[in-house]
Design a protein that fits this description.
Jelly Rolls, 383 residues, FecR, FecR family protein, elongated, 3 domains, Phage tail protein beta-alpha-beta fold, transmembrane helix
Length: 383
């Protein structure tokens, strides 16, 4: 029983001396050896060095009259064998202060570090009556016309009498750190990225245009052909532009904080109405709407690579670091801070799987541009 106590007291003394700058080389080796034994030791040690309360603990130890306290307790010790532990008395005081503070704050606020994990399938469905329903991959949900399982929200096929019913709408909101798949009543499939919200009819009317609205965020559409619905066109309204399609696959990226809205055509054809003009896109082309200048341009690119997020891949093709970190922050639900503003404009090129640990991605990014990063709770700091 004595030896573990003595060992802990000795470690407490080493930590005390370390904080006061009085460790010998031999004592440094002993302390480092203890730190390497297990992660819990490192966490408590970090608490002691970084926490505000620990400086007060050291001051308390420094002000404590150790010799006087020992002189008061010594006459009460009858067992002569205990005298060989006299030198440990002052260490016991240090241990009491340091480890009590360390362990107490560790339990109350475990290491002040939030584990940052990759996103998962989750969403919030807002029904006609305004009720919010939380959807998750492992959580099943069903109601009239709709059901959810395994990360997909699916609406029933258009009923024969739907043309007589009034159009009612649902909203699906994807939080930061989430993604979800939506199957509309006509069979159109929509992949929704993190931090996205879409408005759509519970059931389309047969023979009438099929209209949905991407309120913000990013969505990939695989639209069922108009031929299956008596020529009914499919259109998407998003940030001042309207896309009209007959049957095609395309992606819209329209986040409020981004400088541009990007519409990418994968296959088929789409007619974009924007700024009083109509622009027809062809496969592997992208229309970029500049929000500041209120102008647009069309470029050629690899549409599959541009929309690889729906396949679980980040594909950054010579993008500014600020834009790269926006994508990372949405998926991992973290905040990003740049210590030097000029770092935001550095171009980065790379491909990552979305299920990677965030440290792996940050290591690759920062090493490639010769900088460093730091994680503090839920914030990433680019040095």
């Amino acid at each position: 029983m004595i030896k573990p106590l003595v060992d802990n007291i000795e470690i407490a003394n080493l930590i005390t001396k370390k904080m006061k700058g009085g460790l010998t080389d031999e004592e440094s080796i002993q302390l480092n050896s203890w730190l390497e034994e297990q992660n819990a030791n490192k966490e408590i040690y970090s608490r002691i060095l970084e926490g505000d309360g620990f400086a007060e603990g050291i001051d308390l130890i420094s002000e404590f009259d150790l010799e006087n306290s020992w002189n008061q307790i010594e006459p009460k010790i009858k067992d002569s064998k205990s005298f060989k532990y006299k030198r440990y008395f002052k260490y016991a005081v240090a241990a009491s202060v340091l480890f009590l503070i360390a362990l107490t704050t560790y339990i109350v606020n475990p290491f002040e570090k939030t584990e940052i994990t990759a996103g998962t399938p989750r969403a919030v469905l807002t029904t006609v009556n305004g009720e919010d329903v939380v959807l998750e991959k492992e959580k099943k949900y069903s109601d009239q016309f709709v059901s959810s399982s395994n990360g997909t929200l699916k609406y029933d096929e258009i009923s024969e009498g739907s043309s007589k019913n009034a159009v009612t709408y649902n909203y699906l909101t994807i939080p930061r750190g989430g993604e979800f798949t939506l199957v509309l009543s006509d069979g159109t499939k929509v992949w929704l990225n993190s931090d996205t919200k879409i408005k759509y009819p519970i059931q389309f009317k047969r023979g009438a245009p099929r209209n949905v609205e991407l309120l913000y965020g990013e969505a990939y559409f695989d639209v069922v052909s108009a031929e299956d619905f008596n020529g009914s066109s499919f259109s998407v309204q998003s940030n001042g532009q309207r896309l009209k399609v007959l049957g095609t696959e395309f992606n819209i990226k329209s986040y409020p904080e981004d400088l541009a809205t990007k519409t990418t055509l994968v296959e088929g054809s789409v007619l974009v109405s924007i700024a009083g003009e109509q622009v027809e896109l062809t496969p592997d082309s992208q229309l970029i709407w500049d929000k500041e200048t209120e102008s647009f341009k069309v470029i050629e690119l690899n549409a599959i690579a541009e929309t690889s997020w729906k396949q679980g891949v980040f594909n950054f093709n010579h993008l500014p670091l600020e834009e790269v970190m926006r994508v990372v922050s949405r998926w991992y639900d973290v905040n990003v801070e740049f210590e030097h503003q000029e770092m935001k404009n550095i171009q980065f090129n790379g491909v990552f799987k979305k299920d990677q640990k965030i440290d792996n991605i940050l290591e690759t990014i920062t090493k490639s541009i010769n900088t460093a990063y730091e994680i503090k709770e839920d914030k990433i700091i680019i040095k």
